[in-house]
Amino acid sequence: MSTTVLALLFLVGLVAAQPGRRPKGPIPGGLTPADDVNDATIQSMSRTAVQKLGSAYSLTRVISASTQVVAGTLYHLELAVSKTTSSTPPTVNNYTCKVKVHEQPWMSYLEMTEFCCKLSN
After folding, report:
1. What is the pLDDT of residue 78?
2. Looking at the domain 27-119, which fold is it?
């Protein structure tokens, strides 16, 4: 009897001591880093976001990108952006922008939900 109890306690201890196993692949609702910032979809979302900032802005490059599945796809983008002023002579200011773009393709919905740009000259 006591041998059975000891064996059972030993097995329970082994199971409890196992490190937590993390499922492979993205966590539902979690952020998934983009494998390639030059991916056509990431580039398209980045260009769309910069267009929404205004015609004076242009995309220099995508610094980083990740996606999140939330009733569609939420793109978290960090972009290098330049802005040309209308002064004479025109000047170019460089910014680093953090942008979120929410897409629901089945509803033809695309909206920039957040943006924050900081001067990086």
Report:
1. 97
2. Nuclear Transport Factor 2; Chain: A, (3.10.450)
